[in-house]
Amino acid sequence: MGEMIVLIPVIVFTVMACRATGEGPAKILGLKKIRIGTVFLMALYGLLIIPVTLFLNMVSMLFTENVVTSSIDQVSAYPIVAVMIVAGLYGPLVEEICCRGLIFGGLRKNMSAIAAILLSALSFGLIHLNLNQFVYATGMGIFVALAVEAVGSVWASFIVHMVINTEQMLLMLLVNKVSPDFYSEVAPQFGRKELLMSMPVYLFVGGFCASLAIGVLAWASHHEGRLEVLSKLKETPEGGVRGKAVLTLPYIIAAVLCVVAIVYEELH
After folding, report:
1. Which pTM was predicted?
2. DSSP letters along the chain, please?
């Protein structure tokens, strides 16, 4: 339902943009074809940044609950194929078209890659409407937007997003299948003290894997003939404008509403 709320305005905007510019949907949404080798490199890139998202998830759990694992009973009630289609394909596709295709793509026309990456990542975190997912989704958003910049296609971020969601969901469902009481009885015993003790290990593993991920990303960028873009992340496009002209009133209102929703969720 949440993805449908996002998808409807995306479709409307895409149709309007196609009519106004005469360009096709693929061009508007940044869905440029990528090479087969790049597909596998992006899958590897996605696997390597999972430890980073796990660390950020642990950081958020110092202040709030894990939203996804708390809903495992409801999720496991559905057929696994349906869960994989929604969480591993449909959800990532809608979110990537919106956050990387429209938001990042639009921002990138007017500001540097670094600014567009950070702002689109923040937007990605905010639309999840809870503190737990906001923290790790924002971090993940930085990596996936960087993949789009490096490879030149939203298909890159979709593959990364798909790999992360699929791996995490399959792992959760497997754990719940093997030990049905794990998330309801065992996991809650893993408190703040245990989190703090585990975080240095996750930080080290996450940092190491992130370093490898950047290497894989550079390889993918080179494979697509775009390696030079990684050295121009701070450059503003010719004719671009600075941040205040890009942050429109509707965007600011939407961001504020998301923040209010997150605060409300935490207080209740």
Report:
1. 0.92
2. -HHHHHHHHHHHHHHHHHHHH---HHHHHT-----HHHHHHHHHHHHHHHHHHHHHHHHHTTTS--HHHHTHHHHHTS-HHHHHIIIIIIHHHHHHIIIIIIIIHHHHTTS-HHHHHHHHHHHHHHTT-SHHHHHHHHHHHHHHHHHHHHHSSHHHHHHHHHHHHHHHHHHHHHHHHH-TTIIIIIGGG--HHHHHHHHHHHHHHHHHHHHHHHHHHHHHHHHTT-GGGGG-TTPPPTT---HHHHS-HHHHHHHHHHHHHHHHHHH-
Residue type, 201: V
Integer Rg of the chain from CA: 19
- Domain segments of the chain as ranges: 34-227+242-267
Is the Cβ–Cβ distance between 153 and 33 less than 8 Å? yes
Ordered per-residue pLDDT tens for the chain, 268 residues: 556 677 788 888 888 889 988 989 999 999 999 999 999 999 999 999 999 999 999 999 999 988 888 788 788 888 889 988 998 999 999 999 999 999 999 899 889 999 999 999 999 999 999 999 999 999 999 999 999 999 999 999 999 999 999 999 999 888 888 888 877 777 777 788 888 999 999 999 999 999 999 999 999 999 999 999 999 999 888 766 554 456 778 788 989 999 999 999 888 7
Q: Are 163 and 46 in contact (CB under 8 A)?
A: yes
Torsion sign, CA atoms 212, 141, 131, 77: negative
Closest CA to 54 of 159, 167, 148, 144: 167
